[in-house]
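Two proteins were folded this term; both appear here.
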Amino acid sequence: MGLTTRRPSAKKVHSLSKPMKKQDLTENPPVTYHIVFASCKQTLPEAVKSRPSSSTHKKVVVALADRTSLPGYLNPARLQQNQPIALLTPDGEHRDIEMKDIRAIYFVREFGDKYEPQRKAFFSRPKLDGLWVRLTFLDRDTLEGVVPNDLLALLDYGVHITPPDLNGPAVRIYVPRSALASMTVLGVVGVARRQLAAAASSAQPKLFSD
């Protein structure tokens, strides 16, 4: 049984050798781009928590006149008399608190239930530089501390003191004048006291001259 080969017909050969239709490659078909915007849903408190706090805002606990407290962040440079303070809570809420409703502002190391100093008086003469004072609140409660030896600062709208418990939760306390009944200077301490003593000794007349 022999094998037969079939040649393509002339018609098919002609169809294969048919020239291709010219196409204008400069004409590009229109292209449609689909842009998808991903939505990031984030609440305001979460956004504030994830954002680092500014260096000008310090951790504070605001003690109110009714003995309640509010933690948050505060710019100490904006403490002014008769103007509300702008407190940023840890949840990201802004709260305005009237100065007349504030008992004291505690600048704390960390937030916690205990923010007041354990000791409210010095056991002995403090070694810090400044004026040793005793603050008397309107409810007759007292608190000792050291303030800068600057009379112009004492004429301000409030008193910034360093509490007796240096290792306590509060490193500094601000007390508005509206919360105070009186402030008594107990003495000059630190370098200022030694300078006053040296000036007094040099001013004394000598009994015997060399």
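Next, the second protein.
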Amino acid sequence: MINTDYEMSAAHAKYLEGIALLPRDLRIQFARQFLDTHRVNAAEVIADLIGMANSVVDNSHELLKVEAVSRGLTWSHEAEKINFPSLHGALMGVSLAAGVDAAKVCAGCAFRRGSQANQCAPTQHDARDAVAGEWPFMCHEETDASGNCLQGCRGYALARGREKQQEKLCQPTT
């Protein structure tokens, strides 16, 4: 099913199309100009951009699943299980990566803002539960021949340490 959970005029889309490829500082500048010039409701623009981003992600997922199956890389029932990045996952990942030094974790770490694992909602749900003390979170960079993880995740350890420190700060003093 095609996701069209957004509304946007062709004129607004054309203006925003030019902004999309700019670096962040210029996106902010032109976004302010867009809001002032077009007298649009900022909440509606944000909601529509989120809807459009979700649609793009959904289409990317579908394309990748179809390609994987058509190229014989997986079966269709297995393609449904692939863990893809999403806007929801990326937003979860921002909060879990906060305060974790990217220089101390591997490139694909779930606790490194912007990594694929950091933007996948199922991975972020597992990471959030692990940080809350539910279970350990393992590093997926080093595995044995059977695919079993060989060591704990450094990002998890840093995030867990941050959580324990915050818990101490919230404790009443006697």
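Residues 42-70 form the longest helix (29 residues). The mean pLDDT is 91. These notes refer to the second protein only.
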